[in-house]
Amino acid sequence: MLCNILHPMTMPTDTSMNSVEALEALYGSDTFGIKTMEKYLSKSAFKKMMLTIQMGGKLDMSIADEVAQAMKVWALSKGATHYTHWFQPLSDATAEKHDSFVEPDRKGGMICEFTGKNLIQAEPDASSFPSGGIRATFEARGYTAWDPTSPAFIKRTANTATLCIPTAFCSYTGEALDKKTPLLRSMAAVARQTTRVLNCFGITPSCVETNLGAEQEYFLIDRNLYLKRPDLIETGRTLFGCLPPKHQQMEDHYFGSIKERVLEFMTSVDHALWTLGVPSKTRHNEAAPGQFEIAPLFEPCNVAVDHNVMIMDVLERQALKFNLVCLLHEKPYTSVNGSGKHNNWSLSTPEMGSLFSPGKTPHSNKLFLTFLASVIQCIDKHADLLRASIAKAGNDHRLGAAEAPPAIMSIFLGDELTDIVEQIKHGGAQSSACKTTMELGVDILPELPKDTTDRNRTSPFAFTGNKFEFRAVGSSQTCAWPMTVLNTIMAETLDEVATRLEPVVGTPEFNKTLQNLLKEMLTKHDRVIFNGNGYSEEWVEEAARRGLPHIKTTLEALEVLSRPDTIELMEKYGVLSRSELLARKEIQVENFEKLIDIEAKTCLSMLHTIYMPAVGMQMQQICETVAAIRQAGLSVGLSAAVSKAEAIGALYDEIPGRITDLEQAIAAGQPEAMRFAMDAARATVDALEPLVAADLWPVPTYAEMLNIHSK
Ligand code: ADP
Ligand code: MG
Question: Which atom of ligand 1 lies at the shortest distance from residue 354's CA?
Fold first, then answer.
């Protein structure tokens, strides 16, 4: 019997849904999470699952059949008819291939079947997924493997319910073809090295967690307007359009009162997410008109990555219910804010919480300072790899533009911590606060205020209390790859730290060795610390003086992926093999080139089929006016009409040249030339926009698109 279909998509958003009981019943009701497992599994199977989920232990496969049976019973009770291994191939999309539970019972009827084998592994035809040369198209086999640490969930539409099982995806030869596998490997690597460092301090953690809280920025646009913009439909961003007189300069949208239509949408998003066990927490207007943010609470990195992908999916689907379209592109509109996805990242243990917690006396908190210095070292050492992890055509437009961090990787620490870094560097130097000699491990400095940092929204990588916020990640990316890179570079530095400390553990040398090590690390790498205005031109110059890389474009950034030291790093920590890494580079380069090609062709088609005809119509109208004035023998109005025709006509005459340039760039397959030609075409059309009659302008303007009105 298929029963009890709750439809988050059509869920009423009246406040009766918001009683504590209703919310409790709603939360996670569509996930096979811990609460559900406890209810549906035997005690011993539940315990074994918990060992894997909470402690990261290897799953005892003998319970697979029981878990599958329980999952099936639960999913059927939720109205599911199908199941799918849900995975994240090497695009920014997710993939799913549905199988029904239905099997004939050989008596003309049916039974619902789902075995341990169905749960653990599937073998979808992988031939049409990007593999970056890992496998040829004729080698079709690919495998998905269940990630038991990320809860299975029910994905719904109005009349369907499908059990989604989060999985990793690999080739027949065992190479990762997805984003989850290297992420899980990087989490294991950084946990291993963190444990070694903690052991040096006499701490034995029950496990080490990598945490991620991903804030998601997005734009909403009325669907009717969206459908009139081929550029938005094809490329996710406007290729034309000039800034309206009022955009975000009044700073009246950021945190402003949320309009009713948008708030109704946000509430429906929250309900859908809570049903899926996604801990959606914060919602608000963002800086640009039409721009918003949603943030869930942080979770283990792989779960948070899955949840962020689900958030993007829910945002897009729920928006349609309100006749809106959600734009996840990094830069849908030029000259106003772009959208990012701030990745709040920390390492923690169940016993200690975040290892980036400064405590009340950070200067004497050896453990904190060790982890702090390690972050500083790894970001400085691998700034280019970190930059590559966020390389995407859309992000090229965002980074370094209106209120977005520049493509220079730097760390914001805040004055207090920077002061401590300075003191450590000058080991034994005087504390600025109390003018006494500071030595690590001696509690002589004044207590720092508990909140040791101010905020800095201009930094790509900011320390924010007990976590780091990687703000340069693009809004449409999955967090998997930037987090994989971050975990791996941190693992490398922690490995070095542990290797230096292990020989002196338990000896009187320990403190001195640690102090020297931190001094060395900070002296070498503190150039990456920058507390000033990252949006300023001065910083670009200062960063160049410091020798920090400033890699402006995606193609340039991706070069680091095939460098021998990157390959060595990824192989050393078992995160990616050489071929897996090179495949990723190849796919990203290819994606970039394909995207620019799509943009250029969309731009060309809009010039031909939308702008040329509209401007032609305007010319015709003015010419008719001129003729009419002349015929009427009037001595006034002629010069106004003629000069208008001349102004518009001069720009009109530019368009054929723009078209030729664009066609040549497309034919040559040169992304940079295509971008240049698109910019030139845009300049001409945007110069025409304020001149042409509003009723003849063929597409919605920025003013119309950026402002959300009631339906
Ligand atoms: P902001 O004020 O920077 O916009 P938000 O409240 O929107 O911050 O989001 C902050 C994010 O950081 C949330 O997802 C939150 O759960 C997450 N976060 C808080 N503490 C930690 C931590 N220790 N590790 C990782 N993420 C954290
Ligand atoms: Mg926020």
Answer: 23
